[in-house]
């Protein structure tokens, strides 16, 4: 049994928060509301403890934490793990405890008066005898298997709710935009073409800048066995698209849940619960969590880095940030640089140690990405180096549109955070530990504002930190809901309004992929009676607009359908069908349409729609698999349907099937 006594007169149980995890991570928070003061303590013990049997004892002039160790033959190790830097004002009374079964003296409680110069820090009395350190090799609780086991044990129903929201977004909007095309097409080629590199899509459509294959390789390695078995059973590739996106959504969810767990340890269960509510009442973060953007791959790694930052594991945090910068998105540096400099300034990590970890990880990441991507691109290449050269040195990102300096703060963040932005000032006011978190988020957005071309996805990394800051504010309102009921009711109204906005955004976005809708209509438009390799091919041309708005290799149908995305064509006589944004094409008749966004009907407050992608059928070629009579009977021009939708947040007016840098 371990007793920790904190000199904190005047505290009561309602103003204290004590949390222990089975792997020995201990967190205590206490505050005097009238005096606007607080005491906090975080420890990580070497061995596992009985979290359920630990208790908090309030005394007149102190608080006593009683922690029971799991009965093993091992000794108590260092009270604080070696990767934690010792504060300069911490006095080293002792380093080790004997096992509770060996010494009854350790089971006795003790009180210590803390000198004012040391502040409100837990101090300990050394045991009467100090044994030598146990030299037997053991696995620390900070090992990756232990961290994963601890994380899985901590999952709750609210984590499941967050993942359910991600899946709902996926099911309602399964199609993708041009910004996601490289990673999606690369994953498709890795699954279905394997080692036939000459058949890969990126050789024909390389995009503006090269991208890494590491993310697609991870997704394809998990999905390929299931997708190939489904293909043998005659299933379409659309199911594989769902699997790929669901897997990426799962990776994003594990990162969010890991951060939420560390938030619970750092700020308390109320803040963790508030963070889950805030995430579910926002649209963009969870909507994009399953979308194969380079920014989303980087977001997964960066969010895990933030979780390690909250847990005071700075070396792992720095290593993950360096890896994400080198491999997935070079712009992660605008988050990494302020964070590392802040921790160096606060003496949480030394400059040379941070440099060693950061540079060492970067070198290892380069050794991983350069050989693999050079093989896939058939030339020596570091993809993120090319992106950095394109955006910073050549400064060509403005070719894809520019926005004013303040756009992120006045447009992007309010849309991304919705009502939760109002809780951030409350969080800063009630807990000063929010200030460095908010500093990292705001400084990264500020630095990115200097780049003329702006998109919401560029500042994804700031959203988890801003959500934590907002959750601290919402958690404070929840804890004081009995004292200030009207404030809590206002907070609930804000969350409700945010949830309503999510429903509106989702309804609008469902109509924003007319290309995907059009290509799924093709089999119903062409009642093909011939199936198998002996059938004549059905040639379909897809123009740039349709390809950019929902069509991918996963949505293309199997033979006898043959698709072409060749650009710059003037003559389409060899094609049986066209998917195009043009309402009329000579030599073709209108067979069907796919609806797209056309504004908002403010009278009924619903989105309006119009035909955005047209399916044209050739009038000069006989369609394979049908008779001439059947062809003629299908020649009536359908009346376009009338529905609605809102413009996607990330849509571009770029011509051609280009991958935006």
How does the major sheet shape up? 5 strands, mixed
What structural class should be given to the helix and strand makeup? alpha+beta
- What is the C-alpha radius of gyration, as a whole number of Å? 29 Å
Low-confidence runs (pLDDT<50, min 5 residues)?
A: 73-84, 90-142, 627-661
Task: Give the neighbour order of strands across the main sheet.
Answer: 8-7-9-11-10
- Kindly estimate the percentage of residues that lie in beta strands according to DSSP: 5-15%
N- to C-terminal separation?
58 Å
What is the overall number of helices?
20
Could you give the count of β-strands?
A: 11
Taken from the alpha-carbon principal axes, the silhouette is: elongated
**How would you state the average pLDDT, rounded?**
81
Query: Can you give the helix content as a percent range?
Result: 40-55%
What is the oligomer described by this structure?
Answer: single chain
Descriptive account of the structure:
With 661 residues, the protein is an alpha+beta fold. It is built from 20 helices and eleven strands. It has helices at 144-154, 157-172, 181-192, 214-232, 238-267, 269-280, 284-287, 294-310, 314-327, 333-345, 351-377, 383-393, 407-417, 424-430, 434-448, 462-479, 485-509, 514-525, 544-548, 628-633, and strands at 2-7, 16-20, 25-32, 37-44, 49-58, 62-69, 538-542, 561-564, 577-580, 588-601, 606-618. The strands form three sheets. The chain has a five-stranded mixed β-sheet with strand order 8-7-9-11-10. Strands 1-6-5 form a three-stranded antiparallel β-sheet, with no helix packed on it. Mean pLDDT is 81; it is low at 73-84, 90-142 and 627-661.
């Amino acid at each position: 049994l371990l007793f920790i006594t904190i000199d904190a007169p005047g505290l009561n149980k309602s103003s204290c928060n004590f949390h222990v995890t089975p792997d020995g991570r201990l967190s205590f928070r206490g505050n005097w509301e009238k005096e606007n003061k607080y005491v906090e303590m975080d420890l990580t013990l070497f061995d596992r403890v009985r979290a359920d049997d630990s208790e908090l004892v309030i005394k007149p002039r102190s608080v006593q934490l009683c922690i029971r160790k799991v009965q093993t033959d091992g000794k108590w190790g260092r009270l604080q793990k070696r990767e934690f830097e010792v504060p300069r004002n911490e006095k080293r009374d002792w380093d080790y405890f004997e096992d509770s079964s060996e010494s009854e003296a350790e089971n006795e409680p003790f009180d210590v008066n803390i000198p004012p110069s040391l502040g409100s820090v837990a101090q300990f009395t050394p045991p009467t005898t100090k044994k030598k350190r146990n030299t037997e090799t053991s696995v620390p609780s900070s090992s990756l298997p232990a961290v994963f086991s601890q994380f899985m044990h901590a999952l709750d129903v609210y984590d499941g709710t967050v993942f359910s929201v991600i899946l709902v977004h996926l099911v309602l909007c399964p199609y993708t935009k041009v910004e996601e095309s490289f990673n999606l097409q690369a994953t498709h080629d890795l699954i279905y073409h394997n080692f036939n590199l000459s058949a890969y899509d990126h050789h024909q459509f390389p995009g503006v800048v090269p991208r890494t294959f590491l993310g697609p390789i991870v997704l394809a390695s998990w999905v390929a066995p299931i997708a190939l078995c489904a293909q043998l059973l005659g299933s379409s590739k659309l199911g594989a698209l769902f699997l790929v996106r669901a897997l990426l959504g799962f990776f994003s969810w594990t990162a969010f849940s890991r951060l939420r767990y560390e938030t619970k340890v750092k700020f308390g269960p109320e803040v963790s619960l508030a963070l889950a509510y805030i995430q579910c009442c926002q649209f963009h973060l969870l909507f994009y969590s399953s979308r194969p953007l380079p920014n989303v791959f980087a977001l997964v790694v960066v969010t895990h880095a933030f979780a390690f930052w909250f847990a005071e594991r700075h070396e792992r945090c720095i290593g993950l940030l360096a890896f994400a910068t080198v491999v997935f998105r070079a712009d992660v540096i605008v988050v990494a640089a302020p964070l590392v400099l802040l921790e160096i300034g606060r003496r949480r990590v030394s400059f040379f140690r941070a440099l060693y970890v950061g540079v060492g990880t970067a070198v290892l990441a380069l050794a991983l990405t350069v050989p693999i991507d050079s093989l896939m691109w058939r030339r020596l290449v570091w993809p993120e180096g090319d992106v950095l050269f394109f955006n910073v040195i050549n400064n060509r990102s403005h070719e894809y549109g520019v926005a004013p300096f303040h756009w992120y703060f006045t447009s992007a963040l309010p849309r991304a955070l919705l009502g939760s932005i109002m809780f951030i000032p409350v969080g800063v006011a009630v807990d000063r530990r929010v200030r460095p978190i908010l500093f990292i988020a705001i400084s990264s957005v500020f630095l990115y504002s200097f780049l003329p071309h702006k998109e919401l996805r560029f500042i994804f990394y700031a959203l988890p930190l801003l959500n934590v800051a907002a959750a601290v504010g919402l958690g404070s309102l929840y804890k004081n809901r009995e004292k200030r009921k009207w404030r809590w009711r206002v907070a609930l109204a804000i969350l409700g309004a945010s949830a309503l906005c999510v429903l509106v955004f989702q309804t609008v976005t469902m109509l924003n992929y007319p290309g995907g809708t059009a290509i799924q209509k093709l089999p119903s438009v062409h009642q093909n009676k011939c199936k198998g390799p002996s059938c004549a091919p059905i040639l379909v041309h897809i123009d740039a607009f349709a390809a950019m708005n929902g069509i991918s290799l996963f949505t293309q149908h199997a033979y006898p359908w043959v698709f072409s995305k060749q650009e710059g064509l003037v003559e389409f006589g060899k094609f049986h069908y066209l998917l195009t944004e043009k309402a009329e094409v000579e030599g073709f008749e209108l067979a069907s349409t796919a609806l797209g966004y056309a504004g908002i009907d403010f009278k009924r407050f619903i989105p309006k729609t119009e035909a955005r992608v047209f399916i044209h059928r050739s009038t000069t070629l006989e369609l394979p698999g049908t008779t001439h009579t059947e062809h003629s009977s299908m020649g009536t021009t359908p009346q376009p349907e009338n529905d609605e939708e809102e413009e996607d947040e990330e849509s571009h007016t770029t011509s051609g099937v280009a991958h935006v840098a």
